[in-house]
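Quick illustration for those who missed Monday's session on complexes.
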Amino acid sequence: MTVPLDRAGAILTIDLDAIAANWRLLSARIGGAPCAAVVKADAYGLGADKVASALETAGCRDFFVAHLEEGIALRGTLADGSRVFVLNGIPRGTESDFVAAGLIPVVNTLAELSAWRDYARATQRILPTALQIDSGMARLGLAPKDVSTINAEPSRLEGLSLRLVMSHLACADDPAHSANGSQRLQFNRLRAMLPPVPASLANSSGIFLGGPFHFDLVRPGAALYGINPKPSHPNPMQRVVHLAARVIQLREVPSGAGIGYGQAGLANRASRLATIALGYADGWPRNAAMKAIFEGSSLPFLGRVSMDSIILDITDAPLQPREGDLVDLICAEQTLDDVARAAGTIGYEILTRLGSRFHRRYIYRDTEMDQRP
Ligand SMILES: *Cc1c(COP(=O)(O)O)cnc(C)c1O
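Prediction with pyridoxal-5'-phosphate bound:
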């Protein structure tokens, strides 16, 4: 969804070339093993259809979404040769929808596995299937005893063509964490009890844990979108997102003026203010006291972030913004990860919340466009 440029309070620019470059960088790091793309939650809010087709053009053939509906939508934009895995499994009674859409479910429970196997039998089909095993995160996937059950009763896989056995790391962003090694050992122990099929363990940060974590397929999401997969190191990924908001009013206030809700801001001198058309309803965190950037200078927030607007102190800006000008909020000088840190959260949350009231613009093959042709 995009709002016409002349009516929008803010402009979100998404660099599909940078996403493709990030995918190539990760592919080069794993040398050989395929690099999938996680495009759940509308590609972390950036537009799954556009992101996935740019990545498919770059050579990516494996895509992961969270929900059946996301998978159905994505299938419509990808070629038949590309695979779409659905991480959250098979909602009861939707087996036929997976088959009709050509989706590969990631089966997480024995009950799902039974229903899927029964559907294969009833329709006399061989159904492509991924299995997730829980190697120590306790979120989704078969428990060790479930894997033993399958090992003891191979008929539970009858009619199913296993394409992938996967697990997920809980602490991959902390390379020193002992859970990484123990999850990898547990993953290897458990998958040895299943038929020998391609294996996958690493998300974005997992890729940077090194070769033993790469297995046969890696599943990055965040790093593709420019989030730093190696917190506390310089970000190896290209920046993907740029956010700018429009100045909709300027004013001058005397020293001592109270500013914004609760008059929580205070002009400690005669000040010039600019109000911009972006607020917490657009996904900007209310608790992040940040700045905007205009022509290289910082314009600090003054007072509270409102639902639809933020007040900036422009008193010291050598170049004064005028009404209608755009100021930058996510850019080289203030990254997604900076905003996340200031708000006490992670880049993932900032990205997935960025709003629907923006004008969205995509950069693809060095061309800027409002919608891809
Ligand atoms: C979301 C998700 C990923 C991608 O994780 P990032 O940290 O964004 O790279 C990979 N695998 C699973 C199972 C996920 O849920």
